Each structure stands twice: as structure tokens, then as C-alpha cells.
Q: What sequence folds into this?
């Protein structure tokens, strides 16, 4: 998702010298972010998010976790992330994990699952080829999985949060639990050799940042494209979001699912535990 350079500072100077009311840096950025994504699509995402973090005074730090007891270089697995077809998964503790993940992808062939209520507006802004709805209607959901399968088989990347937001910071009954759709994805959509690239975003980092934002704003990819979410704040002290990353293939997840009982709850629990083992975390950490 590497975008062309855009001179935001000149944009801001021109705006401030005009006869129109002075816009804040936050709303100015959001406006240009929306325009750029509408005009350039996902090719602008990286540049837009870089400016987003700069305005907010937030930075993201990542490291690769060891695999089978062996140290892994982040640069090496990022090369695979940029080129291989498959799926990206992550925990979903709050508003900020979406842009933190998106800026690492550096790809224009990303398809993301979004809440049904946001689907049409995001499809209008990003293009229908970039989003699929987490629909409650079984037929629409099945059509969505067909779209995902076709996208991955064509070499694309699919982004999904297996918890469906149940570990979201605003969820009063917050818990780390995978939904049935992820098991369906690995069983019926992914080929054994397809990539499953996992992120773990530090929940405390995300929640501590979100707790200082009043009133609540729709942050993440939603804020970058929906005009009602222009309410951004700048932090006086720089905030850091820590992430861990792990590269794998669908076959390891398929094996975990196959070894579990047929009961969906048991299968989902096994997949959750495999994710937690990957990053050395417990449910209490999530």
C-alpha cells in the first residue's frame, strides 16, 4: 500500500491563508485522507496513516516472535507478508489496531471484513472489491466467503479479526473468543499452503490510548473514510503501540481444527489457544 508523496504542509499553509475559517490539523488531515483514499484507493493508505500517527503523536513498534524455538527476523517475514496470498488475523482490543496493522501491509490487494452496518459506505469509499460484509444473513455471508476464496486464489490478502470485536475495549462483556467464521475460513477457503499472518497488538497500549479520547471517535479505517469521524486529538506525550508478528501457513491451523472435537465451541477454543501459544499470552493478558 505504498502511496505517492503528498505535501500536507503546503495544503495546510494554503488553507490557513484563505478567507475560509481556519481548520484544525486534525480535521484538515482527515479531509485530505478521505479525498486521497477516494481518489487513489488503498495505494494511499500507508501515506495517510503515517500522517495520522504524526498528528496524533503515536508510534508503532513491532517484533517477530520465535517460531519452533528459533529466532525469526521481522524483515524476513514481512517480505512474505508483502507477497504471499492468504489471511491476516489479529486480536482486536480497540480503535487503534486497524491502522497499526494496515500500515505494515504495503499491498493494494487487501480485502477486509467489516461490520454489515458500515459495509455500503466503506464500499462506496474504498470500492466493493476491498470490503466484504460480516453479514447476519447466511446466504450473504456464504457469498462473502466465496468472494474471499476467489480473492485469495487470485493472490490477494484478506484481513479478519477472528473475535469479531468481542475483545474490544468498549465491550462490557469483553472476552477473547473466536467466532465460527474463522474455522469455516481455514477449513473451506484457505489452501494448506496459504499464508496465515498473525498480529498481536498489546491490549493495554490500545486501551490506555483510547481511554484518554473523549468524546469517543470512530478510529481506524472507519475514521479515515467516514466524514462524521473527524474528531481527532493530539497527545502531548508520545504514545507507543507494541505489536508482535508471526508468519505461518493454513495447514497448521487446519491441523489444530482437525484434532479438536466436532463441537464448535471446542474447535474455537483450540484455535484461540493456538493463537495464544503463538504469542505466549494468556486469556488474562487479553
A:
Amino acid at each position: 500500500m505504498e502511496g505517492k508523496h503528498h505535501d500536507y504542509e503546503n495544503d495546510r499553509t494554503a488553507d490557513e491563508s484563505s478567507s475560509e475559517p481556519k481548520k484544525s490539523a486534525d480535521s484538515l488531515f482527515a479531509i485530505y485522507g478521505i479525498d486521497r483514499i477516494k481518489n487513489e484507493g488503498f495505494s494511499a493508505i500507508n501515506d495517510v496513516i503515517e500522517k495520522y500517527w504524526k498528528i496524533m503523536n503515536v508510534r508503532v513498534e513491532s517484533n517477530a516472535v520465535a517460531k519452533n524455538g528459533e529466532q525469526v527476523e521481522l524483515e524476513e517475514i514481512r517480505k512474505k507478508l508483502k507477497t504471499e496470498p492468504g489471511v491476516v488475523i489479529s486480536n482486536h482490543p480497540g480503535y487503534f489496531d486497524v491502522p497499526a496493522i494496515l500500515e505494515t501491509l504495503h499491498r493494494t490487494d487487501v480485502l477486509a471484513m467489516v461490520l454489515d452496518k458500515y459495509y455500503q459506505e466503506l464500499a462506496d469509499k474504498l470500492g466493493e472489491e476491498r470490503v466484504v460484509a460480516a453479514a447476519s444473513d447466511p446466504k450473504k455471508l456464504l457469498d462473502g466467503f466465496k468472494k474471499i476464496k476467489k480473492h485469495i486464489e487470485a493472490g490477494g490478502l484478506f484481513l479478519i479479526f477472528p473475535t469479531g470485536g468481542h475483545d474490544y475495549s468498549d465491550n462490557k462483556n469483553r472476552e477473547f473468543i473466536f467466532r465460527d467464521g474463522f474455522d469455516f475460513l481455514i477449513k473451506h477457503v484457505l489452501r494448506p499452503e496459504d499464508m496465515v499472518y498473525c498480529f498481536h497488538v498489546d491490549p493495554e497500549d490500545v486501551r490506555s490510548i483510547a481511554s484518554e479520547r473523549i468524546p469517543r471517535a470512530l478510529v481506524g479505517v472507519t475514521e479515515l473514510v467516514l466524514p462524521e469521524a473527524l474528531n481527532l486529538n493530539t497527545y502531548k506525550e508520545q504514545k507507543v503501540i507494541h505489536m508482535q508478528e508471526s508468519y505461518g501457513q493454513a495447514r497448521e491451523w487446519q491441523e489444530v481444527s482437525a484434532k479438536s472435537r466436532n463441537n464448535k465451541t471446542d474447535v474455537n477454543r483450540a484455535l484461540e489457544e493456538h493463537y495464544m501459544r503463538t504469542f505466549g499470552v494468556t486469556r488474562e493478558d487479553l
Remarks:
- DSSP finds twelve helices and seven strands in the chain.
- The radius of gyration is 19 Å.
- The domain at 8-12+22-285 is CATH 3.40.1130 (Glycerol-3-phosphate (1)-acyltransferase).
